[in-house]
Design brief:
This protein is α/β, with parallel strands linked by helices and about 210 residues long. About 55% of the residues lie in helices and about 10% in strands. The chain has helices at about 5-15, 15-30, 35-50, 55-75, 80-85, 105-115, 130-140, 155-165, 185-190, 200-205, and strands at about 90-95, 120-125, 145-150, 175, 195. About 35% of the residues are buried.
């Protein structure tokens, strides 16, 4: 467990939104942490490692409160993202979740990573209908389409979306990520995607740093 994560976890578990925001802002202002490290080493483990010893009905709403705190921090980070973004490369990235996938905080952070690399990023959010994604791709003409899947049960819908995206016969590549792919490195190819990437380093290597 890294030191920054340990520092952040206490106020998060106490649901102290002000303390969490001020702590992260202080790190960013001082340069103690950059956006990719904050997302990978602090916010993502905080989301994945949430535990609750209360009754189930209490745990559910407390998890939502903590998730909302992390979401506030991610949105607060955006000025730091654009201040440190690479020179614009005039290439677009469209990021979405397939129908039924309600977890959007992870791909929201991923959208910032693409922005840091100089891409013009379009984030469509959770539970995006396939038809709407196809329309967005035809309209935006992105260089990459990124699909995020957390729940394994949504892999079938993700496969259907990938198939229909390929059916457009347009010049883009499909990158997938999320927890549903973490335990099977071949799952991305199984559903027809071109690449799998979750980390900033992986994204940078796959996209050529936005060049």
């Amino acid at each position: 467990m890294n030191e920054l994560y340990k520092q952040f976890l206490d106020p998060l578990l106490d649901e102290d939104k002000t303390a969490c925001v001020n702590m992260v802002k202080g790190w960013l202002d001082s340069g103690e942490v950059d956006i990719p490290t904050l997302y990978a080493k602090v916010l993502t483990p905080a989301m994945n490692g949430m535990a609750c010893e209360d009754a189930a009905d209490i745990c559910i709403w407390r998890e939502h409160v903590r998730s909302s705190i992390v979401r506030t921090i991610v949105e607060m980070c955006y000025p730091y993202v654009i201040a440190n973004a690479a020179k614009p490369k005039k290439q677009k990235v469209l990021i979405a979740c397939p129908p039924g996938e309600l977890h959007e905080l992870g791909p929201r952070m991923v959208a910032d990573l693409y922005t840091l690399l100089g891409f013009e990023t379009r984030f469509a959010g959770a539970n995006t209908p396939i038809g709407d994604i196809l329309s967005a791709v035809k309209y935006e003409k992105p260089r990459f389409v990124v699909l995020s899947v957390t729940n394994h049960y949504n892999l079938i819908k993700a496969r259907d979306m990938v198939e229909k995206l390929h059916g457009l016969k347009m010049d883009f590549e499909i990158i997938v990520g999320g927890h549903a792919f973490s335990n099977d490195p071949k799952m991305a190819s199984k559903i027809g995607a071109d690449h799998h990437a979750d980390t900033f380093k992986q994204i940078k290597l796959l996209t050529g740093g936005g060049k």
